[in-house]
Amino acid sequence: MRISRLIAAACLGAAFVLPARAQQVTFMTGPQGGSWIPLGGALKGLWEKEISGLQIQQTPGAGIANVRGVDEGKAQIGIANSATTVDGIEGRKPYPHKATHVCQVANLYPQYFQVVALANSRINSLKDLKGKVLVTQPKGNTAEILTSIVLQLNGMSYDSLSKVNFQAGYTDAVSLMKDGHAQVFTLGTTAPASAVMDLASARDVHLVPVDDHTMGALKKMNPGYNRLIIKAGTYPKQDKDVAVIGYSTHIIARCDLPENVVYKMTKTMATHVSDMAAVVKAINGATAKDMAIDIGVPFHKGAAKYYREVGAL
Predict the structure, then answer these.
(1) Model confidence at 55, in pLDDT bands (50, 70, 90)?
(2) Cβ neighbours of residue 84 under 8 Å, at least 6 residues apart?
């Protein structure tokens, strides 16, 4: 009897010294060479430092793949693009069904859909893509889907091009452009984009602007898209402003991720904007109110709780 009591006492004592059960989550970011991987690394570091017991496994991803990954439970957190996340919530192609487990956490910064052409390619408008050699991201990536839509809005398809290369990383796409094996490169990321700067250091390139017809038709399809301006001087030899298609980078989470965890994640981002901006300059100056702008994706309870506390909702 005495031995049983001693064992029970020892177990009770151990219960007080054992650490709280860690919250392990998978975080899907972006393709190699883009801004989402370093941003994901910065967020992982901030979240693990500020949220006791949180352990994050960071994995590569892409906008549409991340929405599906979170919805299907392959990940609990992801970086995504506002316009294509709305497509997922509505169940529009390329999603097989409505994404019902995806919740909004925070808007971070604008993304620019950039059509980058070699200076000698004679590509000065989107209609000039016909018969050219294109490199873009893998099928299902946000920029690839948008490339396909832009072609359709201009009476074309991939079959209208001479060749299409679907590359997993920006680095490989830039290599094809540098070697002259592709004439035009499409990507969705920040401006300036490191991949475009790398390309511009070796070849003369220019940005192809979006025209009023394409922009108007696209916005009717999905109000999450907007016309943005890449200012003159953003890239070498860019002597004028260029209008492009834009959308927002935002953080999503599974709606069943614990409320207190997402509350702390949201608070950490809102109070460490300068740390995020050190990795992605476009985040500089973001406020809780900016992060809480309604983009048509339901807020996670934890995020909404924080935004209400600080008067952003």
Answers:
(1) very high
(2) 63, 64, 67, 142, 145, 224, 247
pTM of the model: 0.71
Instruction: Please report, for residues 174, 182, 252, 278, 297, the alpha-carbon distance to residue 90 in angstroms, rounded to integers and kept in the order given.
Output: 34, 35, 16, 34, 10
Provide mean pLDDT across the span 102-130.
Answer: 96
Q: What residues have CB less than 8 Å from 106, skipping those under 6 apart?
A: 250, 251, 266, 269, 270, 291, 292, 303
Q: Which of the 8 DSSP states describes residue 191?
A: S
Q: DSSP letters of 239-259?
A: -S-EEEEEEEEEEEEETTS-H
What sign has the CA pseudo-torsion 259, 263, 266, 272?
negative
Tokens representing 161?
């091009």
Q: Under a CB-based contact definition with an 8 Å cutoff, are residues 95 and 87 in contact?
A: yes
Residue of 112, 106, 59 whose CA lies nearest to 234? 112
Is-contact 252 274, C-beta < 8 A?
no
Instruction: Kindly list the distances between the CA atom of residue 98 and the CA atoms of 83, 262, 301, in Å, as whole numbers in the listed order.
Output: 14, 23, 20
CA distances from 240 to 45, 57, 209, 233, 247 (A): 38, 42, 11, 7, 21
Q: What's the pLDDT at 270?
A: 97
